Amino acid sequence: MAASGSGGNRADNGYGSQQPRRRKGPGALATAYLVIYNVVMTAGWLVIAVGLVRAYLAKGSYHSLYYSIEKPLKFFQTGALLEEYLLIAKYLPGIVPSSVVLTAFQVMSRVFLTWAVTHSVKEVQTEDSVLLFVMAWTITEIIRYSFYTFSLLNHLPYLIKWAR
C-alpha cells in the first residue's frame, strides 16, 4: 500500500499534478512579424544616426542638422504609432508584458514633439535642443529595437543587454 500522506506520486515531485504556469509567448507568425518590425525600426533609426553624422561631417557644425534627418525622423517616429496600436492588440492576449498606458504616453509625447512642436514651429528646427532629443531618441531606439529583435530570436548579446 502506498503512503497516503505523501502528498502525491513520485512523478509530480510533491507539487501536485498541475504544471507550473508558463508565460505564453507569441506564436510563430507573431514572432516573425515582431522580428521584421523591430529590424525595420532598428534600420530606420540607424539611417537617422548615419544622416546626423554625415550632415555633421559635411557642414562641420551641429547647427541645423534637423533638415538632414527630417523625413526619416518623422516617418520612424510616427511609425511608433503602429507599435502602440499593435501593442494594445498584443497586450490584451498577454503576448507582450508592456504597459499600454506608459507606452502610449511615451509614443504620443514623441509624436507630439516631432509634429506639433518641431514640424509646426520653424524656429525650433534650428535650435540645438532638437539635436539633443533626436540624438537621445536615436541611441535609445537603436538599443531598444535591437534588444527586442535579439530577444525574440533567443540570441541576446551581452552588450545590448547591458546597454538596455
From TrEMBL:
Keyword Zinc in annotation: no
Membrane-crossing segments per the record: 31-57, 95-118, 130-148
Pfam families, per the entry: PTPLA
Keyword field contains Cell membrane: no
Localization per record: Endoplasmic reticulum membrane; Membrane
GO-annotated biological processes: fatty acid elongation; sphingolipid biosynthetic process; very long-chain fatty acid biosynthetic process
Name of the featured protein: Very-long-chain (3R)-3-hydroxyacyl-CoA dehydratase
Organism listed in the record: Calonectris borealis
Name of the coding gene: Hacd2
